[in-house]
Amino acid sequence: MGIKILTEHINVPGIETLEVYRKHGGYRSVEKALKTMTPDEVVEEVKTSGLRGRGGAGFPAGMKWSFLAKPEGIPRYLVCNADESEPGTFKDRVFMEKNPHALIEGMITSSYALGANTSYIYIRGELLFILRILEKAIAEAYAAGLLGKNILGSGYDLDLHVAPGGGAYICGEETALLESLEGKRGNPRNKPPFPAVKGLFQSPTVVNNVETIASVPWIVNNTGAEYAKIGVGRSTGTKLISASGNINRPGVYEIELGVPVEEFIYSDEYCGGIWKGKQLKAVVPGGSSVPILPANLILKTAAGEDRLMTYESLSDGGFVSGSMLGSGAFIVFDEDQCIVRNTWNYARFYHHESCGQCSPCREGTGWMERVLHRIEYGHGHQQDIDLLVSVAKQIEGNTICPLGDAAAWPVASAIRHFREEFEWHIKHPQEATAPGAVYRGQLAAATV
Amino acid sequence: MAETINAFQFSNKALAEIQRYISHYPEGRQKSALLPALHVAQAENNGWVSPEAMDAIAEILNIQPIEVYEVATFYTMFNLQPVGKHVLEVCRTGPCCLRGADQMIDLIKQKLNIEEGETTADGMFTLKPVECLASCGTGPMLQVRETYYENLDSEEALDRFLEMMRNKEVETPEWKK
Ligand SMILES: Cc1cc2nc3c(=O)[nH]c(=O)nc-3n(C[C@H](O)[C@H](O)[C@H](O)COP(=O)(O)O)c2cc1C
Ligand code: SF4
Ligand code: FES
């Protein structure tokens, strides 16, 4: 069992109440930071920790914080990204539902470090039931003097509010999120200016994921140097992994970065192996946006080394033979799953969620969905495979926000690694569209 | 006057809830309360947001009606047509499909004799497939109002769920209690 930074107390009965949370050491980082550290000292600790953004991009949190503009007389904001809409990701939801005070503690300590006096948690609208849990916990924190004016007599003031979205994946993108928080459509903004200069209400703003912010109290309590000792290389600390798909034990697991992928899939501490005694076919290791890898390439890198659950190891080999840690959504496919159908499903998702501002994304996602639909339903043409590759290429890098890339990568990687399966669908439409039919030719080659 | 007869009336509790959200934002930024206001309106209006409700929101937030319409049409949670008593928002995205969501959606259609987007003749259920609800480890799953129903992984589980819903009143949001 590795060290648990985020989930140590998550299953303690009553941990959602202030009383029990404090009994287990809760809000110590607020006392320590506000009473004994300057804001810059907190930022330094986070820098030293090597903590990287847990929302998907993995950008170093301390560095992001140090970019925040600090013009005199203009408010600064910290906005927590609790939009969690990337398919396969459900860690923030579980975390907030069970241990709301842990996020609130992170928000107070982080807001202090950034000099924000008003902060927001933007939560996807579907999670209104968690908004209620957070609001209840926030009310408790106000009553205990942990929020509001002159927190714990330190002279520091902070108001914290929760804001719901309305159902839109794109609002997880940080500038779309800010638009949404201002009561507008979730259209991503052109950058620059970056949120660090002009964010919420045109003021300097930091947007961080729930898990990133929730990691800060431990760093403040134990120092950044201690945090940096956990993990491997530039993948420091622990990570919440949302494990889903055809495994025996789906759920959220906190791992020390560096656990071998094979152990993560087969150990009873984590996924507990493939369900129903079936074989592993493929894994999407970081949320629907990252490349899919066949069994052989998820377990070992192209160079034959064990693949580890780290930012670096999962991306080893680039997009030719690697993928990404992304948001830590680990989606497992057994031998009975159809890659074509899954790719069509994802393409439909991105088409549905494109905000429509950029033509390559708006048109390209629709095009990919339609072509994949016809392949899946037995009307594909042999040229369709190259057409998909070409459309994906034309979207990639040509859009305002990364949703375009996120739509292109799953399609491009599925064809890269499972081309035979697409060809089989096109050549044998009757067989391929029979109920429960799956192409098995490639599995034998791909399974180790 | 016809206009006043049709005008949408928020309850006092609903108005208080919208005001509470307005108070979370700086002076002049009351438009930020638009999404919360739309959620309140939907809960007040049998699960959908009518044009009259949108106009009432525009008035409260002191913005143009078009600013409300363009937002209400962007976000998938807001129903712009009347819906059944219980809207079944079923996740149709990849990870849930690995655990049988496609088959579950087909079963719902068969059992309720409706297609996606339709409402049963008795007005009890509307079927509304949606994208990933951050519940992928417990799929197949669906949402009704503020509640998630998870692990609907067999026909028996689905039958039990539908039976329970038939006898269930629409839930009351926290602010209405
Ligand atoms: C289409 C899209 C969806 C995203 N969804 C989320 C999300 O649901 N949650 C999240 O934290 N970050 C999401 N991100 C990443 C955010 O833009 C941003 O990088 C992140 O919130 C920064 O926080 P971090 O540095 O702590 O990870 C998304 C990005 C894109 C392009
Ligand atoms: S890439 Fe797609 S989602 Fe992003 S701004 Fe352009 S159209 Fe909108
Ligand atoms: S895929 Fe259904 S909840 Fe995520």
Automatic annotation (TrEMBL), chain A:
<feature type="domain" description="NADH-ubiquinone oxidoreductase 51kDa subunit iron-sulphur binding">
    <location>
        <begin position="340"/>
        <end position="385"/>
    </location>
</feature>
<keyword id="KW-0288">FMN</keyword>
<dbReference type="InterPro" id="IPR050837">
    <property type="entry name" value="ComplexI_51kDa_subunit"/>
</dbReference>
<protein>
    <recommendedName>
        <fullName>NADH-quinone oxidoreductase subunit F</fullName>
        <ecNumber>7.1.1.-</ecNumber>
    </recommendedName>
</protein>
<dbReference type="GO" id="GO:0051287">
    <property type="term" value="F:NAD binding"/>
</dbReference>
<dbReference type="GO" id="GO:0008137">
    <property type="term" value="F:NADH dehydrogenase (ubiquinone) activity"/>
</dbReference>
<dbReference type="GO" id="GO:0048038">
    <property type="term" value="F:quinone binding"/>
</dbReference>
<keyword id="KW-0285">Flavoprotein</keyword>
<keyword id="KW-0479">Metal-binding</keyword>
<keyword id="KW-1278">Translocase</keyword>
<dbReference type="GO" id="GO:0051539">
    <property type="term" value="F:4 iron, 4 sulfur cluster binding"/>
</dbReference>
<dbReference type="GO" id="GO:0046872">
    <property type="term" value="F:metal ion binding"/>
</dbReference>
<keyword id="KW-0408">Iron</keyword>
<dbReference type="GO" id="GO:0003954">
    <property type="term" value="F:NADH dehydrogenase activity"/>
</dbReference>
<keyword id="KW-0520">NAD</keyword>
<keyword id="KW-0004">4Fe-4S</keyword>
<dbReference type="Pfam" id="PF01512">
    <property type="entry name" value="Complex1_51K"/>
</dbReference>
<keyword id="KW-0874">Quinone</keyword>
<dbReference type="Pfam" id="PF10589">
    <property type="entry name" value="NADH_4Fe-4S"/>
</dbReference>
<dbReference type="GO" id="GO:0010181">
    <property type="term" value="F:FMN binding"/>
</dbReference>
<dbReference type="InterPro" id="IPR011538">
    <property type="entry name" value="Nuo51_FMN-bd"/>
</dbReference>
<dbReference type="InterPro" id="IPR011537">
    <property type="entry name" value="NADH-UbQ_OxRdtase_suF"/>
</dbReference>
Automatic annotation (TrEMBL), chain B:
<dbReference type="InterPro" id="IPR042128">
    <property type="entry name" value="NuoE_dom"/>
</dbReference>
<keyword id="KW-0411">Iron-sulfur</keyword>
<dbReference type="GO" id="GO:0003954">
    <property type="term" value="F:NADH dehydrogenase activity"/>
</dbReference>
<feature type="binding site">
    <location>
        <position position="136"/>
    </location>
    <ligand>
        <name>[2Fe-2S] cluster</name>
    </ligand>
</feature>
<dbReference type="InterPro" id="IPR036249">
    <property type="entry name" value="Thioredoxin-like_sf"/>
</dbReference>
<dbReference type="GO" id="GO:0046872">
    <property type="term" value="F:metal ion binding"/>
</dbReference>
<dbReference type="InterPro" id="IPR002023">
    <property type="entry name" value="NuoE-like"/>
</dbReference>
<feature type="binding site">
    <location>
        <position position="91"/>
    </location>
    <ligand>
        <name>[2Fe-2S] cluster</name>
    </ligand>
</feature>
<protein>
    <submittedName>
        <fullName>NADH dehydrogenase subunit E</fullName>
    </submittedName>
</protein>
<feature type="binding site">
    <location>
        <position position="132"/>
    </location>
    <ligand>
        <name>[2Fe-2S] cluster</name>
    </ligand>
</feature>
<feature type="binding site">
    <location>
        <position position="96"/>
    </location>
    <ligand>
        <name>[2Fe-2S] cluster</name>
    </ligand>
</feature>
<comment type="similarity">
    <text>Belongs to the complex I 24 kDa subunit family.</text>
</comment>
<dbReference type="InterPro" id="IPR041921">
    <property type="entry name" value="NuoE_N"/>
</dbReference>
<keyword id="KW-0001">2Fe-2S</keyword>
<keyword id="KW-0479">Metal-binding</keyword>
<dbReference type="Pfam" id="PF01257">
    <property type="entry name" value="2Fe-2S_thioredx"/>
</dbReference>
<keyword id="KW-0408">Iron</keyword>
<dbReference type="GO" id="GO:0051537">
    <property type="term" value="F:2 iron, 2 sulfur cluster binding"/>
</dbReference>
